Amino acid sequence: NALFQQFTARTTWEKVKSSLFPLLEAASRTGEILDFQNVLERLAFDFTCISVLGHDPNSVSEESAAEKAFSYHAEGVFYRHVVPVFLWKFQSLLRIGTERKMAAGRRTIEEFMSESISLREEENRKIDGGSHDMLSCYLRIVRGKCDQEIATISRQIWRDALLNFIFAGKDTISSALTWFFWVIGNHPEEEEKIRREITAVLGTGEWNSDGRAADEIKNLVYLHAALCETLRLFPPVPFQHKSPLNDDVLPSGHLVKRNDRIVLSFYSMGRMESIWGKDSGEFRPGRWFSDEGTMKLFPAFKFPAFNAGPRSCIGKEISFVQMKIVIAAVLSRFKIAVVDGDHARPRASIVLQLEDGLKTRVTKL
């Protein structure tokens, strides 16, 4: 939807300008070491909530209980996938360990969603037409329904769908951005290429103030290639598992029985020489360009950072727009220097994150 894309691009830029810039400017003045991963997680939560709910929790500036609750819940989901079922069910029954945090997080999330929906309903009643966030679009549809029972059922379904969009967007975007800044921090020559392209395409002024960012950002082709290369090496969702409903045979000839769990490692696939060649372990954005200089399009089953087939991520394009806006805005104004960049320990979680955060020093250009 063009209106939704424009709304998301504009609000993402406004969030970066109003919340991220002041934080980075303060860090550049004091010289403090900044955990940029934590900053990006809070930023992504804010602009994801704005796009989905039309509500800014402002967690970049202030600690947000809702943002932490989403993280606790994701941690609990991961825990349930790696421990025996009887163990997490026992902990859930006694309300102890990770299950206790998960239950508390669920209550906070439910309160957050209820308050956000009520606030948006009130605002949409006052403003004819309303905003172009997902929740406002849903409310306009419900307003036209005569059958209250159907509207109530629809509301329950959409509430869960909106919640799913927040979970899907919050951590994946922040993960991709975190690894991007870590990678270019260790490849200064690539950082300068990207910065030169940003200046050439967008200039140095308030390039998004007239609302053209969603269109102009598409011209940052080298940045797009660098992002794809980051996602190849560090996919936000590094593993996935599937279970067949019935006995089946894979194209490789392997027999899989009903309910067998098949684990797919997208992280490993991105580093396999048989798929990406002998330089598969290198960060090389140039692999995404043809000999004629045009962008290559690799099949989703080769580059599954956004999944593949019927379950491909529907937010792929808008995610690229948001990530490019953040990167272009930051690199055109600041130098993000990674501290101890050689040490990057992935955290055991659903989403690929750095165990010790992304320690950085910020310099204003």
Automatic annotation (TrEMBL):
<dbReference type="GO" id="GO:0020037">
    <property type="term" value="F:heme binding"/>
</dbReference>
<protein>
    <recommendedName>
        <fullName>Cytochrome P450</fullName>
    </recommendedName>
</protein>
<dbReference type="GO" id="GO:0016705">
    <property type="term" value="F:oxidoreductase activity, acting on paired donors, with incorporation or reduction of molecular oxygen"/>
</dbReference>
<keyword id="KW-0408">Iron</keyword>
<dbReference type="InterPro" id="IPR036396">
    <property type="entry name" value="Cyt_P450_sf"/>
</dbReference>
<keyword id="KW-0479">Metal-binding</keyword>
<keyword id="KW-0349">Heme</keyword>
<dbReference type="InterPro" id="IPR002401">
    <property type="entry name" value="Cyt_P450_E_grp-I"/>
</dbReference>
<comment type="similarity">
    <text>Belongs to the cytochrome P450 family.</text>
</comment>
<dbReference type="InterPro" id="IPR017972">
    <property type="entry name" value="Cyt_P450_CS"/>
</dbReference>
<dbReference type="GO" id="GO:0004497">
    <property type="term" value="F:monooxygenase activity"/>
</dbReference>
<feature type="binding site" description="axial binding residue">
    <location>
        <position position="313"/>
    </location>
    <ligand>
        <name>heme</name>
    </ligand>
</feature>
<dbReference type="Pfam" id="PF00067">
    <property type="entry name" value="p450"/>
</dbReference>
<dbReference type="GO" id="GO:0006629">
    <property type="term" value="P:lipid metabolic process"/>
</dbReference>
<keyword id="KW-0560">Oxidoreductase</keyword>
<dbReference type="GO" id="GO:0005506">
    <property type="term" value="F:iron ion binding"/>
</dbReference>
<dbReference type="InterPro" id="IPR001128">
    <property type="entry name" value="Cyt_P450"/>
</dbReference>
<keyword id="KW-0503">Monooxygenase</keyword>
<dbReference type="GO" id="GO:0016020">
    <property type="term" value="C:membrane"/>
</dbReference>
